[in-house]
Amino acid sequence: MTSDSPQARTLYRKLVDAHTVTALDADNVLLYADLHLMNEYTSPQAFAGLAAQGRAVPEPGQQVAVVDHIIPTHAESPRRIQDPASALQARNLKRNCELHDIPLFDTNDPLQGIEHVIAPEHGMIRPGMVVLCGDSHTTTYGALGALGFGIGTSEVEHVLATQTLVYRLARDMRIRVDGALPRGTTSKDLILHIISRISAQGARGYVVEFAGPAVDALSVEARMTLCNMTVEAGARGALIAPDEATTEYVLARAADIDATMAAAARRHWQTLHSDDGARFDAELRFDAAEVAPYVTWGTSPDQAIPIDAPVPRLADAADDIARAAAAKALDYIGLAPGDSLHGLPVQRVFIGSCTNGRIEDLRAVAAVVRGRKVASGVRAMVVPGSGAVREQAEREGIAAVLIDAGFEWRKPGCSMCLAMNDDMLAPGERCASTTNRNFEGRQGRGGRTHLMSPAMAAAAALCGRITDVRALEPAHA
Q: Is the entire prediction scored with pTM above 0.90?
């Protein structure tokens, strides 16, 4: 990784250099982690490994655990995990956290939620940090100028025992987005647009830094959506240089940062940007004006098109491998080349996940559905990303709007993002979903998933079919 000037470094390189304990060789370093997040399904083997070696966790205050993937989201109080295997995972996590004095957002904690939602909202993520988690969507934290990425179970054990990770250096990519997003489009549409253009492997081996006026104009929560889904292009990380919006977001939530510390933090955070003259290994440029509301047509997030475009022809695939993958995806999803997604009936709508389960997302949904009703025959669910988001939505009247419209108002959790709990699709059901992945069986065996923005999913719920939200008349108050 080189630069035009010996002193000029990318933001990614600055973060790696600041956390390198020692260089192991030309391609690998021992990387220090400021924060390690855990969930119930990628941590059991790691704790078992610690126990087998008689090891302790030397830095318990730099670990945070959450029960989120397996938890039911129905309205029962207190919540009970009925599935025996899932209940065992939750009990084991609680026992291990108590043993090692690790903070835990447990099943009935009022602040429980999805790990990638609760960590930023409680001020745990600050610019300049390295954050690790046994979950691929840890890239979310790049929205706050932190280097976050997912790790495997064996690596979870290593981090618990040492607070470090043997880390292979990534390459640098910068994606600049010029212009402004058009009406009716969001950062979810922007990232689907980018992934569809560069492919699911287009950023493989890179940490992507997003820049440009369209990115600068995004809210902090919208930036989280952008960074969250960058992993769907194969990226090893995503970053956005912190600005005043980032600083205000973090300082409003980080209760431990007093006025003196805040001044020092501001000065440091202002240095967290790529230097003039820093060279990237790859640079791409997009025009936000070309972004439309996007919907996936296949079984990979890069198989996405604008709502007014036809499903691509197989002959247009890049190569024989892509052509075979497209044919397989169309067979699973029940579509054919040339079909229109506009007007395609849906039986389910899911709004939530670490991609689009924040308060800003729920406000966008309420703005579309206020005064309207969910279409007959559609089961529509809204699952807030955390207890704090749920409480705020209820306080703002958003929950009442959604309930009046016919949405199910659920408790927080990963829910139907993946079929690891009791919220899942039946075989053949078609779902408009705000999640991050549309793989075969991701939301339930035989379920058919179409990824889209919260506003587009809300429109699908009202119309009973995939619909261009821009065509809906403004809802009355």
A: yes
